[in-house]
């Protein structure tokens, strides 16, 4: 295996489409946790950003009462299907959920609390755009039950914001973050993009410095990905804007890691940094492969349908288009587009792909929940790809479990194909995975905000 490794682009959950079959038997129903996180997708935006390829919609008017009623009903239905006794966290993503009224947020939270236990103090996050964020509506969201805010700053440079098609200015972003920190002290996260066309290393360093003077205790950093079909990607392909080189992107990422850690932040996930314990408990539920329920157009979920007597974990996707989704919810109580039972191998692939994104990695206990017959040591401790990665300093397997080193976390996407290949081979279902970045499953989508780099 080559010592030089590519740097990480955006990674995401395996969408339940990797090869399945074989492997250990299914996890018994009694072992399935009766708790789940809940993601709620608000699909509407005032405008589409130049880099956005997510499940968002710009419409002349939104019938918020109808959308609210459908979000409430689908949440109640899916919670009944899952029979979880407690919802550990709620995340309102989008789209731009800060365009919804606090009344919609309150109605959904009330429905959740009525269908399952919603502990006092459970993390309730709302994504917000600076252009739709001021002290007055934020106070309304806090009164509705929101206790954490994620603000899509993306850049503190007006020229970059215009290129990205953002509605807000750098001054508006600063004002929004200050207002949020006043209402949600220690629980205000900001998103920042890097690797923009034409962005230099020095410009990125200046953005970081400005961000450190503004931010609270949580930052999410994302490399801008030029998605096919977006206006920005078309400009780059046409030569109107330059595409950043991979070496520069790697330098930007490493610079950010070093600067943030030196100022007290823990690099606890590939794209996420927190200090003073301000980790996102909701996103941790994805990375730890806990159950989560997706509500709203295009939302994804992973949970056991105990209400149907099932003991198998399913990948569930809701209808993408809002009008069609509402029509189905009004008729059936939910707008599910597809549901697929995940094989034991597929569950382990997801656990591996997601768990290694974090600095804690995959504990033996978590692995055993999905693979009671075959331990981490049995799969990755024997001679093979994982052993080679350990010897090269990218990976660690010890009494704590399997995790990336500091160097390995930065190149995770280049490590995963070898690890997935070894897992499949050991379980007798070997099929060589491609060496590209794993296909992204977007939260507008399932709500794994750690890979999206997008608010609104």
Secondary structure elements and pairings:
Elements: E1 35-42, H1 64-82, E2 86-94, H2 102-115, E3 123-128, H3 135-144, E4 148-154, H4 158-164, H5 170-183, E5 188-194, H6 201-212, E6 218-223, H7 231-237, H8 246-262, E7 266-269, E8 272-274, H9 281-287, E9 292-295, E10 300-304, E11 313-318, H10 322-332, E12 336-341, H11 344-355, H12 364-370, H13 376-380, H14 385-391, E13 395-398, E14 401-404, H15 406-409, H16 412-426
Parallel strand pairs: 1-2, 1-9, 2-3, 3-4, 4-5, 5-6
Antiparallel strand pairs: 6-8, 7-8, 10-11, 11-12, 13-14
Tell me about this structure.
There is one protein chain. The longest helix has 19 residues. The N terminus and C terminus are likely disordered. 37% of the residues lie in helices and 17% in strands. It contains 16 helices and 14 strands. The strands form 3 sheets. Strands 7-8-6-5-4-3-2-1-9 form a 9-stranded mixed sheet, with helices on both faces. Strand 3, helix 3 and strand 4 form a beta-alpha-beta unit. The protein is α/β, with parallel strands linked by helices. Helix 1 runs parallel beside helix 2, helix 6 runs parallel beside helix 8 and helix 11 runs antiparallel to helix 16. The protein is globular and about 60 Å long.
């Amino acid at each position: 295996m080559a010592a030089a490794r590519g740097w990480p682009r955006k990674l995401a959950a395996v969408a339940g489409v990797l090869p399945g079959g074989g492997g250990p038997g299914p996890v018994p129903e009694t072992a399935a946790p009766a708790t789940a996180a809940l993601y709620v997708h608000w699909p509407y935006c005032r405008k589409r950003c130049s880099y956005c390829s997510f499940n968002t919609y710009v419409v002349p008017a939104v019938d918020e009462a109808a959308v609210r009623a459908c979000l409430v009903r689908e949440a109640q239905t899916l919670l009944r299907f899952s029979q979880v006794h407690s919802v550990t966290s709620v995340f309102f993503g989008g789209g731009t959920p800060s365009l919804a009224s606090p009344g919609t947020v309150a109605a959904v939270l009330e429905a959740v609390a009525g269908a399952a236990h919603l502990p006092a103090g459970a993390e309730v996050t709302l994504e917000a755009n600076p252009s739709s964020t001021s002290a007055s509506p934020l106070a309304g969201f806090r009164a509705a039950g929101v206790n954490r805010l994620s603000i899509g700053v993306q850049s503190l440079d007006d020229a970059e914001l215009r290129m990205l098609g953002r509605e807000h200015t750098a001054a508006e972003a600063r004002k929004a973050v200050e207002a949020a920190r006043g209402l949600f002290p220690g629980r205000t996260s900001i998103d920042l993009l890097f690797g923009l066309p034409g962005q230099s290393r020095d410009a990125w360093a200046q953005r970081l410095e400005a961000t450190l003077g503004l931010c609270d205790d949580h930052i999410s950093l994302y490399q801008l990905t030029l998605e096919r079909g977006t206006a920005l990607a078309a400009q780059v392909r046409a030569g109107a804007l330059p595409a950043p080189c991979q070496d520069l992107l790697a330098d930007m990422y490493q610079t950010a890691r070093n600067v943030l850690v030196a100022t007290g932040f823990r690099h606890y996930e590939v794209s996420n940094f927190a200090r003073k314990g301000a980790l996102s408990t909701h996103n941790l539920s994805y990375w730890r492969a806990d159950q989560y329920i997706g509500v709203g157009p295009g939302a994804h979920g992973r949970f056991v349908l105990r209400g149907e007597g099932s003991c198998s974990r399913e990948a569930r996707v809701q209808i993408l288009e809002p009008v069609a989704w509402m029509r189905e919810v009004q008729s059936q109580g939910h707008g599910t587009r597809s549901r697929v039972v995940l094989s034991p191998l597929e569950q382990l692939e997801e656990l591996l792909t997601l768990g290694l994104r974090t600095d804690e990695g995959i504990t033996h206990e978590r692995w055993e929940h999905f693979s009671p017959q075959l331990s981490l040591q049995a799969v990755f401790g024997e001679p093979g790809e994982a052993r080679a990665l350990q010897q090269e300093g990218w990976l660690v397997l010890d009494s704590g479990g399997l995790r990336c080193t500091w160097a390995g976390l930065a190149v995770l996407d280049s490590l995963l194909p070898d690890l997935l290949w070894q897992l499949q081979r050991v379980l007798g279902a070997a099929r060589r995975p491609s060496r590209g970045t794993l296909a992204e499953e977007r939260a507008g989508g399932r709500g794994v905000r750690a890979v999206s780099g997008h608010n609104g």
